[in-house]
Amino acid sequence: MHEIVDGSAEFGQETSLAMASDGTLRIAYSDAITGELRFAYESGGEWVIEVVAVMPEPTPALSLCLDEDDSAYLAYFDTTDGGLVMATRSLNRWTQEFVDPDQYAGLSCSVAVAPDSTLYVAYRDYDPDRLLLARKARGRWTREVVMTGYAVGTDASLRIAPGGHLGISHYSGDDSALIYSSTKLLLRRPSPQFVSR
Predict the structure, then answer these.
(1) Is the CB of residue 128 less than 8 Å from the CB of residue 147?
(2) N or C: which end of the chain has fewer CB within 10 A?
(3) Nearest to 85 by CA among 113, 63, 68, 112
(4) Averaged pLDDT for residues 99-123
(5) What would be the CATH architecture of the domain defined by 11-196?
(6) 47 with 36: CB under 8 angstroms?
(7) Please, which pLDDT band fits residue 86 given cuts at 50, 70 and 90?
(8) From residue 153, how far is each of 13, 29, 102, 124 by CA, in Å?
């Protein structure tokens, strides 16, 4: 089965998909011409489209996840001024904040919510080359370096298991290899140390 979510020309690039607790879908995506970052969700058998942000160029990186209340978290690279932005949809309203305002932060990103509702984003910073993990707790973002090296953090993908095991798969140019970095989260406590292999 196939269905059109948004038939407008050039939509549907850089997509990210999430499923709500009732089984309905949420899709984040960008437009190659207008630079709009959009969010689509199913409602009553129809697709509803919202504009999250408008930028001069389409974002090259975005990642969507939902928490247990189906609030949406959309991490993306801001092509207006650079930097990694988190857009949050709660009570049908979008708000945005910088996770990392560095000009080259977020060219690859992946977002996930831990079992204790803490929000995490794994992302690449292009200058200097490094993979970082950002964590939001008590309303504040903190960042730690996971790994450094040429092209490290490219195509990062983050997942958190119910027991608190956090893993990031990503490419490392120094190793010319796929890397898996992992740690066991100490939920509601300071961030632990990573192991990469």
Answers:
(1) no
(2) N
(3) 63
(4) 95
(5) 6 Propeller (2.120)
(6) no
(7) very high
(8) 21, 21, 16, 5
Q: How many residues does the chain have?
A: 197
Q: 14 and 62 in contact (C-beta within 8 Å)?
A: yes
Q: What is the pLDDT of residue 9?
A: 59
Closest Cα partner for 68 from 119, 32, 6? 119
Res 187 pLDDT > 60: no
In the predicted model, is pLDDT for residue 22 greater than 90? Answer: yes
Are 43 and 89 in contact by the 8 Å Cβ rule? The answer is no
Strand (E) or helix (H) holding 39:
strand 36-43
Q: Which residues contact 48 (CB under 8 A, 6 or more apart)?
A: 40, 41, 42
- 146 closest CA partner among 163, 123, 164: 123
How far is Cα 73 from Cα 116, in angstroms, rounded to an integer?
A: 15
180, β-bridge pairs? 169
Q: Where are the domains of the chain?
A: 11-196
pLDDT given at position 190: 46
More confident: 196 or 163: 163
Render pLDDT for 127-154 as a digit per residue (tens, 0 to 9): 899 999 999 988 999 999 999 999 999 9
Quick count: other Cβ atoms within 10 Å of Cβ 177? 8
